[in-house]
Amino acid sequence: MSRSVLATAALLALTALAHAQTPATAAAAAPAAPAAAAAARPPVDPTAPKPFADVIKGAKEQPGLFPIWRKDDKVWLEIPKEAFNKPFLFTVNVANSVGERGLYASQMLGDEMAEWRRVGNQIQLIALNMKFRTDDAVNRRALEQSFSPSLITSGPVASAEHPDRKSVLVDASGLLLGDIPGYSTRLEAVYRLPYAPDRANSHIESTRAEAGLTTLTSRVHFATARIPAPPLVPPPVAVPTPPQATPDPRSMFFSFVYNFRALPEQPAAIRHIDPRLGHFMETYTDLGDDLKANPRVHLLSRWRLEKKDPAAALSEPVQPIVFWMDKNIPVKYRESVKAGILEWNKAFEKIGFKDAVQAKQQPDDADWDNMDATHASIRWFTGADVGFAQGPHTRDPRTGEILDADIRMSDVFGRGSRRLASDDLMGQHAQHAQHAQHAQHAQHAHQGHNHAPLASWMGERSRARIEQQCNYAADQASEFGFALDLLALRDGQDMTGPEAEALAQAVIKDTIMHEVGHTLGLKHNFRASATITQAQLRDKAFTEANGISNSVMDYNAYNLPLKGEPKASLTNTTLGAYDYWAIEYAYKQVPAEQEAAELARIAARSIEPQLAYADDMDQGVGGVYDGFDPRSNQGDLGDDPLAYAKKRLKLSQELWERVQARKPQAGEDPLRARRSVLSSFRQLGTTAHNVSKYVGGLQAERVVPGVTPGPAFKPVDNAQQREALRFIASGLLASDAFKFRPEFLVTQTVDYNEWERGLPLSIPDAVAAVQARVLDRLMSAATARRLIEQGAYLPEAQRKGAVSLSEVYGTLQGAIFSELKTGAEVDRMRRSLQREYVKRLQAQLNRSTNAAATYADAFSLARWHASQLAGELRMGAAKPGLSVETRAHFAELQDMLNSMLKATLTRS
């Protein structure tokens, strides 16, 4: 008989015996039953998760989208069974940072459509691939096989299923104390050091949960084992210094705010963008229709704004757009911030909404952080090396609905503006900060084209929501400093008095209007300032009622009058015509059956002059997108940018003269005059770039085929191109335009309290920086190409008198080397200009590195002018009476040109 049969027989016998026993006997035998049951129970799996109740014993619950359980330093997320494979919005913000080189607090990093997935006993947080979509189920399977999602983070299941809710726990520390935002790459980019997260010294700092939202803030320590010793020999490319704003450069903390937000159960109605207006967008590729030539879909970004009473001409919204003013905003600025927010109600009232935008003040004793995903906010931050404001937002990727926005604004008014104008910006720290911002700008400008060097798992989504780097506050602060300097010297105003404070308040309101505009879905408009006439800018009543530009989304220069001109508003006071138009297109409520026709009617107004629009790419972000329409600029003002450039030079020259004439006072900042001078040159550099756009420029209009009349491109008028060339030659490239007395220069001290105290003030260096902007523009491959090809855009009768590339090169060369004809000495400032010109000419003759060399005409013209210049230098050097310095300079330039002219004779 087998063992199994024997065991079965024995079990049956025991069962019969139990039934035959009396109750007393059964009671006596009862203890044996559990032992028998225990013997039959399968052995416990030591790897199985602990029971839910055991894990959370003694912990406190915070109910929410994903409930949070906390006990001492332990934090768990509870994930209901029905929440797996259900999309939600996952966002990351930075609440605390290090305050330098682009690493600032109050920053929105990005968002993803995400979902939880369980693989065995592993919980995965997955970023869904929203770049490619289709409504067809069969195609959807193909897309899922073709395009991968991404893993954000993962961790083991921390508990068995809850017996009732069927939910499980996951350790929040294991999920959220790593480098989810890819910050180690950002740190390496600015410091060139290998920082990594240190989990042992990181922790969950705070938690918050409510219906539809779960928020956890991780305090993450980043560290590097050692700081390398400086190289013994200076490297050919400058190496960034280690962190300067932390006590120990090997260690720093960041607070990352992780938001899990439920998506709206009912998706918002979508609205498609129109290229004639500038709105942020949700963009994806629709692969569900093979017949569409362009599968790209662009959904307009906007808040869900619906009237409580759809039939009323003016109605409150069901849910207003509420901005919480951060408790860190200085009390004296809060009213101006509030005014900047509420100014947008004027545009919403035009389309039937009352109090659509609201401002609320976060209490000073509030214990909650407005960087969660449900509080749009205005946050105040500081930085050691730069100041700016930025208005990003997050949105529902399904529809483009804006769900959250956190405007960050730095302390760039008053003290900040003086700091930005300081000599420190000429130093190493500021260069690192600028490089960091330029890297961010490049990321945003090239979003969707994989050009971003700092790509992380959420990099693409983050770029799609910010679209462009916004430095409006920094620009305004720099303009603010220039205006204070000039007005104080001209009118005797106190730079720290009531007039300066009133101007600061006006600039804050202007800046907040600009950034709130971004969070409402509006992009930059760099043509708006060119739609206000010079006469209107001088009319105080007009500027007080209408501002100085037709949009607060432009980067406007201050409306500073020349001496003797009437005073009007210095900065924007209210929304412009374009702002009303853009809000109407995005937010006007229209019955579904009428929407297409009504939106077409609204967009058709683009031909009205005051509604002209141009974005970042139009004004120029670098590379092939260098900006070729002189009407689309940052830092100009009025309908004649060339006239403004001339005015800006006169304003700068007036400031220089007044600074030199002013007698310093005991106890004042010893760097006051130095900062004023350098600030003016910084502004003049922007002007030099803008006026250079006229040469080889094209006027661009956003034409919709079959709808919008007129050409898409038109060469800039020949007379304007030549006038710009004359101004450049006689003004920006002439030494006489930059006059400073030795008696002034020798009094400009440095800050002896600082280790990096700067060097004596160098006007030639400052002038060279301005002139380099002109040379870079006029001698670029893009300008050469446009000058060569502009004849193709002109009727046959107009081509003969068109500005040619040869004319531009000849005018430049003649102006820069005018001493060769007169036999005059060449001073240091002119030697620097001539040397920089020859360097660029030399680069144009290098076919292997110069893109313009691909154009035979551009190369041959550059070579011809180089040969002409080499001959003129030989003759000029032979003229009697020249100093050794000038002769040596001519000899150096000849050698530079001859070496390249000989090299180009070699043919492969």
UniProtKB/TrEMBL annotation:
Bias kind Low complexity: ranges: 428-440
Domain EcxA zinc-binding: 498-821
N-terminal signal peptide: 1-20
Domain DUF5117, residue spans: 107-308
InterPro entries, sorted: DUF5117, DUF5118, EcxA_zinc-bd, MetalloPept_cat_dom_sf, Zn_MMP-like_bac
Superkingdom of the source species: Bacteria
GO MF annotation list: metallopeptidase activity
Chain ranges of the DUF5118 domain: 49-95
Keyword Protease: yes
Region (Disordered): 425-450
Pfam families: DUF4953 (PF16313), DUF5117 (PF17148), DUF5118 (PF17162)
Keywords: Hydrolase, Metalloprotease, Protease, Signal
Name of the protein: Zinc-dependent metalloprotease
Organism listed in the record: Pelomonas margarita
